[in-house]
Each structure stands twice: as structure tokens, then as C-alpha cells.
Amino acid sequence: MSKRDQHSVFIRLDDLVPKDHPYRHLDQILSFSELSAPYQNLYSIRGPKEKGVEFGLRALVLQFIEDLSDREMERYLQENNAGKWFCELALGEKSPDHSYFGDFRKRLGTTRLMAIFSQVRESLKHMGLIREVFTFVDASQLVSKLTTWDDRDKAIKAGLEKFNNETAPKVAADKQARFGCKGNNKFWYGYKEHVSVDMQSGLINKVAATSAEVTDAEGVSHVCPNGGAVFGDKGYCIDPAQRILKRKGCHDATIKKNNMKGKDRRKDGWLSAMRSPYERVFAHRNKRVRYRGLKKVQFQVGIRALTFNLKRVMALGIPKIDLLPA
Questions:
Q1: pLDDT: is 3 or 289 the higher one?
Q2: Interhelix angle 70-79/53-65, nearest 10 degrees
Q3: Average of pLDDT values for 101-129?
Q4: How far is it between the farthest Cα atoms of the chain?
Q5: Between these two residues, 117 and 43, which has the higher pLDDT value?
Q6: 18 cis-preceded (ω within 30 degrees of 0)
Q7: Which of 211, 135, 145 is nearest to 180 (CA)?
């Protein structure tokens, strides 16, 4: 008899997950049953036997924390005991097929997902963890997985002289992706993620996705806080960002361009140092687009922001998020 066969079959899944495992902490800080309660009608009790909304939310959070594809997620839940425990699967229970995860995202939808993000965010505000006193704002590129060279060839074949933002919707598989530019020589095809972060706690306050050609100064309208000092780079020192900050009653703490009147290099050096810790965090994030279409990309940035905040809450040592009613 092998050593494997000699082990007792009377093993609980809970015994296989270390008591200090991060998934245990994650399970404690957020009530997924309470969070999923308003969306129980997404799955009909008369339909085929499926996992419910709470399982779907748990799996979705886990998928983006671990940065897994749908097929990788299926295998992860099949092989990883901690993942099984977190998603409340039995030890010998089979993981849902990979198609389940795409189906759940479709059923949940971007609007509901962002409502969940907002519910958690407002709860964090109520707990005093997001204050909107000092806010870091930034935008980062989201590169489409589409083959731009093939799309360019399609444009040429269709008789178009160039493959650019005017002709892309006519030939590209993703009709809403666009070319973006950062500086004078950094180009990409896809979208842009805009975020505002509370600088006292490091929690994401607001997040939005736009097509790549939208400038940082334009995109700040989606993530601008309601007051406080806003720390932005040189992309925010011009209109319309300046008008938006003024309208929202925010103090302008943006870095000025070198040719601007009133440029203070010592002050801007201090502002850069204040922004630096947050820039490093977001610089190392995955910048690949998972889905096609602006609405689905908004889903991507929304769930990424939610999982980022959950990991940040764990790092801060907060025992539990007191959820406000949806």
C-alpha cells in the first residue's frame, strides 16, 4: 500500500487551509452573503443547477486577485484547497466549467458590479478610511490584445490610407478601442484607466475606463473627488482639468509644465515625492485588456479596484468592513 493510500479519508477541507491564510482574512473582512443579497434573482431556481450569486462573487474576487483566466480559474478551484475553501466548495466537489465564469460576469453586468464597488467604497468612507482630504489622481494605459498589424492590413485592403482613430472602427475587431499617446513617443491601442486614491489610506476612491485617446485632463471628470487637495502630474495642470478641480472645490496640487508661468521647481519636486509611492504601485499593474468594448473594460477596472481595496484593507489590519445597505 502506498503512503498516499495510508492517509485517513476523514479529512475536513478546513483542516487543510492554514489558520493564517490570507483567504481566511478576506472571508472575515467582507460579508459576501450580504453583498450578494440584492442580486439573488440573477439565477432562477427553476433553471439548471448552478452555483449562486455568492459563489460567483467569491470566485470573481479570487480570479482577479490571482489574475487568472477563466480556464485557469476552473483549474485553480479544482486543485487549490484554499480556493475551494474560500468559494465554499466541498473537498471532492468539482469546479464549475470555465464557461460559468464568463456567464456570471455577463449576468452580473458592469452596472451591478460598479454598484457593488460603490457600496464597499461608501462603507469605507463611513468607517473613515476614505476622507477625500488628499487625493492622488492618475491615468494608465490599457493595451488591447488585438493584433493591430492585422487590423492595419485590413484597413489597407479596404482602401483606407491609414489605420488610425478615424478608420479603426471600420476594420478593428474592437470598435471602441482607440490609439492613445503618452508623451511624444509612447503609443498604444486600447483604453485608459483613470483612478483617484485616498492618500491617507491608499484606497481607491473612484475608477473609470475611457478609450485611449481621452486625455488625462478630460478623464479626471470621472474620478475627481468632492473637495480636498488633488495631487496630479503635468497632465492635469491644464484645462479642462483645472476647470473641473475648481468646480468641485478642490485645491490644485498638480505639477506644472516647465514652460508655464509661476513654475516652482522646489514645490513641484515636493509634489512629485508625494505622488511617488502611489505611482510605483500602479506602474506594476497588468496593463492588458481582457475584454472587448468599453463597457466590459469598465467591468475589468471596477473589479480590479474592488480587489485592490480588499487587499489594502487586509494590509491595514481592518478586521471587518461594516457594509452599508445597498
A1: 289
A2: 100
A3: 97
A4: 82
A5: 117
A6: no
A7: 211
Q: Tell me, letter by letter, the H, E, C secondary structure of 160-218.
A: CCCCCCCCHHHHCCCCCCEEEEECCCEEEEEEEEEEEEECCCCCEEEEEEEECCCCHHH
CA–CA separation, 136 vs 284, rounded Å? Answer: 17
State how far the Cα of 220 lies from the Cα of 208, in Å rounded to an integer: 9
Query: Is residue 145 over pLDDT 80?
Result: no
Closest CA to 231 of 178, 191, 270: 270
Residue range 14-66, pLDDT digits in tens: 999 999 999 999 999 999 999 999 998 887 655 555 688 999 999 999 999 99
Measured CA to CA, the distance from residue 151 to residue 162 in angstroms comes to 11
Q: In the 8-state DSSP scheme, what is residue 284?
A: T
Q: Note whether 192 and 139 are within 8 A (CB).
A: yes
What cell does 147 get? 493584433
Q: What cell was used for 186?
A: 509612447
- pLDDT for residue 2: 47
Alpha carbons 194 and 223: distance in angstroms, whole number = 7
CA–CA distance, 192 with 188 (Å, rounded to integer): 10
Alpha carbon separation from 22 to 25, 61, 85 (Å, rounded): 5, 13, 12
Letter string b/e over residues 6-22, b meaning 16 or more CB atoms within 10 A of that residue's CB: eeeeeeebeeebeeeee
DSSP state of 292: S
Residues 213-227, mean pLDDT to the nearest whole number: 97
Res 148: pLDDT: 58
**Mean pLDDT, rounded, for 107-132:** 97
Phi, psi (rounded to 5 degrees) for 288: -95, 140
pLDDT digits (tens, 9 = 90+) for 189-211: 899 999 999 999 999 999 999 99
Task: Enumerate residues 6+ apart whose C-beta is below 8 A from 15.
Answer: none
Show Cβ contacts of residue 266 under 8 Å, excluding neighbours closer than 6 positions. Answer: none
Residue 65 three-state SS: helix
